[in-house]
Amino acid sequence: MSQVSINDRDFSPEWNFTSSKSSGPGGQNVNKVNTRIELRFDINKSKLLSEPEKEAILKMPGNKINHAGELIIVSQSSRSQLKNKEECIAKFYHLLAKALEKPRPRKATAPTRSSIAKRLERKKYLSEKKRLRKKGDY
Questions:
Q1: DSSP label of 29
Q2: What's CA 129's distance to the chain center, in Å?
Q3: What share of the chain is helix, strand, coil (3-state, %, to 5)?
Q4: What is the CATH code of the structural domain delimited by 6-100?
Q5: How many CB atoms lie within 10 A of CB 13?
Q6: Domain regions of the chain by residue span
Q7: Alpha-carbon distance 37 to 18, whole Å?
């Protein structure tokens, strides 16, 4: 079976949206209309993610996942509920793609001769400077 890209999967049945009053732009409209959108996605209950994918997402750094294993994404940058909802969805797919991308393996490298020589030269210079600071025979 071929691996389906995160962007090709439809997570919409598993999203839970809530709206509340925004602190963003909108003037007096802010006090009347619920434009702040919060997307909640229960990682553990997802049927579209495999177990290794769930583990990778739960290990994501940051504070977007609560103790219940829910990914919470908030948007309140626009005056429009629809635009904020679209922004939440875009953030969701971006976060999942970032969490699931494989890190490039680090290639071990050895220091060059010149870098070793520069380091030793700097150490000699600093030790000489400290030696000259000491009180003693002049």
A1: G
A2: 44
A3: 45, 15, 40
A4: 3.30.160.20
A5: 7
A6: 6-100
A7: 6
